[in-house]
Design brief:
Strand order of the largest sheet: 6-5-15-16-17-13-19
Oligomer: single chain
Number of strands: 20
CATH topology of the largest domain: FAD/NAD(P)-binding domain
Low-confidence stretches: 507-517
Length: about 525
Amino acid sequence: MGGLACALTLAQRGLEVTLVDAAEGPGGKMRPLSVGGVQIDSGPTVFTMRWVFEQLFEQAGASFSERVACDPLSILARHAWRSGDQRLDLCAQAVDSQSAIATFSSPAEGRRFQAFCQEARRLYRHLEGPYIRSEKPTVLSLMKDLGPGGLMALTGLGPFRTLWATLSKRFSDPRLQQLFGRYATYCGASPWQAPATLILIAQVEMDGVWAVRGGMGRLSVALAELAAERGVVQRYRTPVKDVVVEGGHTRGVRLADGELLRADTVVFNGDVNALAMGSLGRGGSAAAAVRPRSQRSLSAMTWSVLAPTQGWPLTRHNVFFDQDYSSEFRDIFGRARFPTKPTVYVCAQDRHDQGLAGVGSVDQPERLLVLVNAPACGDEQQGPSWDREQEMQSCQDRTFELLNACGLQVHRHLGQEQRTTPWEFEQRYPGSAGSLYGPATHGWLSAFRRGSARTTIPGLYLAGGSVHPGPGVPMATMSGRLAAETVMDHLDSTSPSRRVVISGGISMQSVMTAGMP
């Protein structure tokens, strides 16, 4: 998505653009898998920050809503816990979530949730412009851009605290700490190491979560179609061997078949570790802003399943928690092993809110993506007792045992599911070691350690989830826009060093936030 957004933006600005991709089609990690003759989204499944795409399409003279049909979800996610019959829905309307939390936990926790939402809203409004819509900030530039109000909001949050430490002060119920601590995993991080600023994800979700008709892949297809209309040449099934650097300047790329594509500018949209490890030649390695020693973010084990279900009332997005939440991250980041008590995410792709008629019966299979967090496969501590297949099978057994314990029966059948492991993610995305989110977002300085669109090699730029502003479909898309604007800024000889900022966003008085307190 970062590469497509960058290509479209540059073409719209008048440049001749060729997009080269080793994959069979557009989308990157946002890919469907064919299981039992149907397509199942098997990458990102949550669509938020719609304004990023609306502005991108509008900038190119097109309407996002006319090209991509989306349905708003009233239930953002449904949550379950192993111990007892416990269920909690987070809703699109904060007042509904507050009422649900008050009933689930206590009226006092409901009031704490209200205060939590207000804090997340203030923080998001202050950070959206200086961080999300701007080129990678420094500590000094961020402090300057935040102004007195933003600095007060950040100071009140405790920016040096971890997300878990902050949630422990905001909520008394450990189940709510667990629920909101999961926001760290959206960035591939541990709640015990991720910065407290990630509470702003609460505001991102309350601004809207949508289901994309036709699956998440429809986003990338629509973007690729628009890019083609604006003149972007797209070459798929075309691996790149290296970035060509001559005389200290980028001069193009050499394809795996030996063909040389000459260019004044190259934008690399992929895991920056691939550059650092020399996957695209010495030129790319010298320009990488993040070194392989950086701690990698989470990987995952996933199951794309076509199966009937019974019991637990699935909605679109479902999360099943085990006990001892911290053990999951000790296993992954401390021992580099599959968790013994995983949290399980289930995306029921044929469901909206309360479900659909005729789906979920014994004789009616539905499309499911089942996911648990896992360590990046390049970092496992393999000892004499390590058995990869046994470890993966144990993880699979624990995953579906937890679903059963929470009341959900998935009637799986041979040939009706496809498993993806960290090793397969590494094969698809070289240099990532299976990590799905680039460098781990650990520590309050992590936002400043992530690479930017600029590199040390003139003419070579970076986009994607491993660089600023970070992972996730909207953020990777925004990285493409920032890379394109940085390229254009460097082509403008009158202002070669100004900091790139993209206008718009939710913090502006859009229809999405008009009237909010």
